[in-house]
Each structure stands twice: as structure tokens, then as C-alpha cells.
């Protein structure tokens, strides 16, 4: 019997602390080794406490996605021995840790995939650069999935969520009166000067999902911008809510954060607490589509792009 080809799969993501006592280390890593001020640390802790009450399910969301991908690869591509590893940008196991574990396990060929469908040099590009540098040092041939923002199964999963959420609005709410706002994490505006595809890919996903769900009343907004001196992509979602309420008298809003694939701080706090609080002040009803998390369609999307990447490298 022919032995199955063994290929590593490095699943990359931003990372999150596993408990409150890890927040300072996490925040310091984000700030390139500069510890946060006591005020900054307390503000971030307060955000986590507001959504989790001291218990951290956020890291588990990512762990489950890695487990879900492993199971899906095993089911859909049983002729290949895919072995999944996790690599986080700002928490343990760091990206380098994941690659080093591959090397210890004898992996010589690997595919990297980021839990973010849209490519940016500042996000996906930064993850893959770190992984490639470590893989090269350790003698692992590593190739990467750069984006999958228009994968049919991803679009299906997102459009099904939009349709289900629209149907959940109270009876008497005309579907055409509900403003659907697609959102993603803002990045510094300087990426536009570099010809970065991030903004364009997000708009392509938003349009494709809207078309598939039959939505015509939609727009795009940015969220969760960093507090830096340089300008970030806008308009910000909070400003958008004020504008559409005051200038267009929109009272029903559905948020679809297509830039995020699981329930993390930017979804559970920035949307579920901040946006909903502002919407209530403005007299608006605001709902949010469910995150993808381990939706089978999303797991199948990842499985497909990983296998395609391995095949294009001539490994399977």
C-alpha cells in the first residue's frame, strides 16, 4: 500500500490572550515590545471583561477552527496526510513556534493559510513573511494561500447569514428599508499608495454577497481603527451610523463584518457593545450576522484552498 504524502498546514491568525493575566504581554507584543501605559492596559482589560466576564472563549474559537479544518481535510482529502499547526501573530504559539513544531515533527513541505479571506501586505503579507523566513531557516518548503475572498462556499456562507438575519427583523419591517453595512478592520491609509488590494477585495466580497442575497440597500464601513497619528481607512462605522440616522432617517441596520471569520474582540465589543449602544441612543435597531466560526462551508473553503495550493506546488 502506497504511503500517504505528509504535508503540514500552518493556520495563521492574529491571536488573542487566553486569560486576563496575559493581556499585558499580548498588548506589549502588539506594541513591538513597548509596554502599554496603565491607562491603555486598563482600557483593553475593560473591553475583554465586558464581553467575557473574566472567561476567555475567544482563543477557543480559533482552536476550534484549526480542529475543524483538520477534520475537513481528513474527510475531503483522505489520500493526503495533512497535519494542521497553529501560528499566531501576537500570542503563543507564535508563528515561529508553529513552524518549529513542524520541523520537529519531520514536516518538509507545508501550506500556510491565514484565517482572513482578504490580502493585505500589512496583515496576510506580514504573517506569511514571518512564516517563510522561519521555514527557510529550518529547511521546510512552504507555500501560501494569499486570498480566498471570492470562493463560492465562502460567499454562500456569508449570503446565507445575511438572508437569515434579514428575515429575523420584526414583521412589518420592509426588507428594502434595512441598511446592510459590510465592515472590516481598518488599516492605515498608506496601504492605498502601495497599491494594496485589501480595500478592493473587501468591496468585491461585499458586492458578491449582496448580489447573492438579493440586497440592494447596502454600503461599506470600516471599524476598529488603531489609535495612531497616521490616518486610517474610513469612514468609521460609528460615524456611518450617525450619518445614516441623521441624514437619511435609517432606523434598521444589519451589520455584516465580512473581514472577520470568528467571534473576537472586534465583533463582540466593537459591534455588539459599541455599535449597538450608539444605535440604541440614535433610536435604531441594529442586528449582526453570525460569525463564520466553524461553519462547514467555511471549513470546506479552507480545505479546498489548502489542497489547491499543495496541488499547484506539485506535492499532491
Task: Write up what this structure looks like.
The chain has about 325 residues and is α/β, with parallel strands linked by helices. It folds into two domains: about 5-150 and about 295-310, 3-Layer(aba) Sandwich (Rossmann fold), CATH 3.40.50.1400; about 150-290, Rossmann fold (3-Layer(aba) Sandwich), CATH 3.40.50. Helices cover about 45% and strands about 15% of the residues. It has helices at about 25-30, 40-50, 60-75, 95-105, 125-140, 150-165, 190-195, 200-215, 235-250, 265-270, 270-280, 295-310; strands at about 5-15, 80-90, 110-115, 140-145, 180-185, 220-225, 250-255, 285-290. Strand 3, helix 5 and strand 4 form a beta-alpha-beta unit. Helix 6 (about 150-165) crosses helix 8, helix 6 (about 150-165) runs antiparallel to helix 12 (about 295-310) and helix 9 (about 235-250) runs parallel beside helix 11. The two termini are about 15 Å apart.
Task: Tell me the domain tally.
Answer: 2
CATH class of the largest domain: Alpha Beta
Mean pLDDT: 95
Which architecture of the largest domain does the CATH hierarchy give at level 2?
3-Layer(aba) Sandwich
Query: How many helical stretches?
Result: 12
What share of the residues lie within helices? 40-55%
User: What is the overall silhouette?
Assistant: globular
The oligomeric state of the chains shown is single chain
Amino acid at each position: 500500500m502506497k504511503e500517504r504524502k505528509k504535508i503540514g498546514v500552518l493556520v495563521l491568525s492574529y491571536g488573542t490572550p487566553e486569560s486576563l493575566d496575559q493581556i499585558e504581554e499580548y498588548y506589549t507584543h502588539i506594541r513591538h515590545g513597548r509596554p502599554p501605559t496603565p491607562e491603555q492596559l486598563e482600557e483593553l482589560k475593560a473591553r475583554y471583561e465586558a464581553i467575557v466576564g473574566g472567561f476567555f472563549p475567544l482563543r477557543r474559537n480559533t482552536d476550534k477552527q484549526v480542529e475543524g479544518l483538520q477534520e475537513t481535510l481528513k474527510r475531503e482529502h483522505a489520500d493526503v496526510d495533512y497535519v494542521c499547526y497553529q501560528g499566531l501573530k501576537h500570542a503563543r504559539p507564535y508563528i515561529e513556534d508553529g513552524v518549529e513544531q513542524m520541523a520537529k515533527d519531520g514536516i518538509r513541505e507545508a501550506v500556510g493559510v491565514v484565517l482572513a479571506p482578504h490580502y493585505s501586505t500589512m496583515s496576510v503579507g506580514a504573517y506569511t513573511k514571518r512564516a517563510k523566513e522561519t521555514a527557510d531557516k529550518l529547511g521546510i518548503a512552504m507555500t501560501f494561500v494569499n486570498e480566498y475572498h471570492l470562493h463560492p462556499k465562502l460567499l454562500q456562507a456569508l449570503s446565507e447569514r445575511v438572508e437569515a438575519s434579514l428575515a429575523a427583523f420584526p414583521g412589518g419591517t420592509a426588507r428594502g428599508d434595512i441598511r446592510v453595512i459590510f465592515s472590516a478592520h481598518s488599516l492605515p491609509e498608506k496601504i492605498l499608495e502601495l497599491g494594496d488590494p485589501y480595500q478592493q477585495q473587501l468591496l468585491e466580497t461585499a458586492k458578491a454577497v449582496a448580489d447573492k442575497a438579493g440586497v440592494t440597500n447596502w454600503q461599506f464601513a470600516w471599524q476598529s481603527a488603531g489609535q495612531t497619528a497616521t490616518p486610517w481607512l474610513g469612514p468609521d462605522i460609528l460615524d456611518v451610523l450617525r450619518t445614516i440616522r441623521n441624514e437619511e432617517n435609517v432606523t434598521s441596520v444589519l451589520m455584516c463584518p465580512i473581514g472577520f471569520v470568528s467571534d473576537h474582540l472586534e465583533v463582540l465589543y466593537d459591534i455588539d457593545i459599541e455599535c449597538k449602544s450608539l444605535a440604541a441612543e440614535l433610536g435604531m435597531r441594529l442586528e449582526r450576522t453570525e460569525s463564520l466560526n466553524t461553519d462547514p462551508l467555511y471549513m470546506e473553503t479552507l480545505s479546498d484552498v489548502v489542497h489547491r495550493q499543495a496541488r499547484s506546488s506539485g506535492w499532491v
